[in-house]
Design goal:
heterodimer; A: mainly beta; Immunoglobulin-like; 7-stranded mixed β-sheet; 2 helices; B: alpha+beta; 5-stranded mixed β-sheet
Chain lengths: 222, 220
């Protein structure tokens, strides 16, 4: 098109190259304006506050309080230590009794002032999760009965109380097993990395974050 | 017969058939009836698929059902429901003190008698409500006060309690199920269970939950 046709005739202006150049410049400009070629950031999960209730599928959880207090109240902990306690009201929406320890999977990540305290990375340093009733601690969550569940983290002596908590919430689905065709509740997890990436050690499944809760932390005098 | 073929006369040719070869086409009514029968069989086969058990049902335990006081037998144990009561709290008296169990709901207390034909077993129990909810025996009452902690042995009956927390409005039509303590991973997949109807319809259930005792005392 741009080459001069053999023989006579008027010489055509070379249009294709300038047009392509303009298009390329426009493409680069528009891409840059919309944040370049990096992956777009994922959709921000729903943000919740204190007192919010969130339906996680198998359970429905209300975030009542976050408090730093010494142990001893409601049969939790010992009186010369301080604990960060997340107080939840959990209703078991499934058709059978489950254990409060299940909240370990339901709230996979807890950050205190942007520092991840759950999972802490130290084996055995998991929060203590119980239900409380009448000054005693128990474990069961019966179907349809709203129950107070407390997740407690022990604070080291002199460790300052955090100001804010950010909690990731997982969701559960009624999952059908491909082979046995039986059903059970299963947490929604992030897709596994593509096959071929060999990993050693246990497979750690990361929960899909269905929502995030931001809780201000109260400090109760000892 | 081992005679020479020369002595066997040739069979005379068959007389020509008098009858015409049968018509390839069946009469219309037969073809119609055949079509109807075929359709009926096909739809019956499709309908029969609705009776197939779901995978969840196939993996469920083998249940023997009955009512109050009747003895139910399985291969692993026999059991009978002896008593049903309601209470707002349970006091467990042990050698060195008492333990008070409270609930926001209601305690349903069943007394179960059991024996075993061959080997000692431990039995666990749960409640199945009329709308299909499953309540495990409560952990508010120490397991040492229940039959779940005791060995049920061949040769004699032993009785004990199971305690459940249950909302009062779920009581009507509930059943109590007793099964062998079993590991869900490597235990017997076809373990038997017995299921007793508590015999509480709406009015009876309300009457009994209203008459719940304030404190129910057991030793454990």
């Amino acid at each position: 098109m741009t080459s001069t046709p053999p023989g006579g005739g008027p010489r055509r202006r070379p249009v294709l190259i300038p047009v392509l150049a303009v298009l390329a410049a426009a493409t680069v400009g528009v891409s840059a304006a919309f944040g370049g070629l990096k992956d777009a950031p994922g959709e921000q999960p729903e943000q919740l506050g204190k007192g919010a209730e969130f339906d996680q599928g198998q359970i429905s959880t209300r975030f009542e309080d976050a408090v730093v207090r010494p142990g001893g109240k409601d049969g939790l902990g010992i009186s010369d230590k301080r604990y960060l306690q997340i107080i939840l009201k959990v209703t078991n929406e499934s058709d059978r009794t489950i254990e409060a320890q299940h909240m370990d999977d339901a709230l996979p990540t807890v950050r205190a002032d942007a520092k991840t305290i759950k999972p802490s990375g130290i084996p055995g340093d998991d929060p203590y999760i119980v239900t409380i009733s009448g000054g005693h601690t128990y474990q069961q969550l019966h179907p349809g009965m709203p129950t107070t569940v407390v997740m407690s983290f022990e604070l080291r002596p002199g460790q300052p109380a955090p100001k804010n908590l950010q909690i990731d919430l997982a969701a559960f689905e009624w999952h059908e097993d491909f082979f046995s065709e039986t059903h059970n509740w299963q947490r929604l997890n992030v897709q596994e990395p593509a096959t071929g990436t060999k990993k050693t050690g246990p497979i750690l499944r990361t929960a899909t974050v269905a929502a995030q809760v931001n809780l201000p932390v109260r400090v109760e005098a000892s | 017969m081992a005679t020479s073929s020369a002595f066997v006369p040739h069979a005379p040719p068959l007389p020509p058939s008098r009858t015409k070869p049968p018509s390839r086409r069946a009469p219309v009514w037969r073809r119609l009836a055949g079509a109807v029968l075929g359709l009926a069989l096909a739809s019956a086969a499709v309908y029969a698929q609705t009776f197939v058990m779901t995978a969840d049902d196939r993996r469920a335990p083998l249940t023997v059902s009955g009512g109050m006081h009747g003895q139910l037998n399985t291969d692993h144990f026999s059991a009978r429901l002896e008593r049903v009561e309601f209470a707002r709290s349970v006091r467990v008296k042990s050698t060195y003190g008492t333990d008070e169990a409270t609930t926001d709901q209601l305690f349903l207390i069943v007394k179960i008698g059991a024996t075993s034909p061959r080997r000692p077993v431990k039995l666990v129990s749960h409640i199945l409500t009329s709308d299909g909810l499953r309540f495990e025996a409560t952990d508010h009452v120490n397991v040492s006060a229940t039959l779940g902690d005791k060995w049920v042995q061949p040769g004699w009956w032993r009785s004990g309690f199971y305690f459940f927390e249950i909302p009062p409005d779920k009581v009507a039509g509930a059943r109590v199920v007793v099964s062998e303590m079993n590991n869900t991973v490597y235990g017997d997949q076809y373990a038997p269970e017995v299921s007793f109807d508590l015999g509480l319809d709406g009015a009876k259930a309300r009457q009994m939950t209203d008459a719940a005792k304030d404190v129910y005392e057991v030793s454990g």
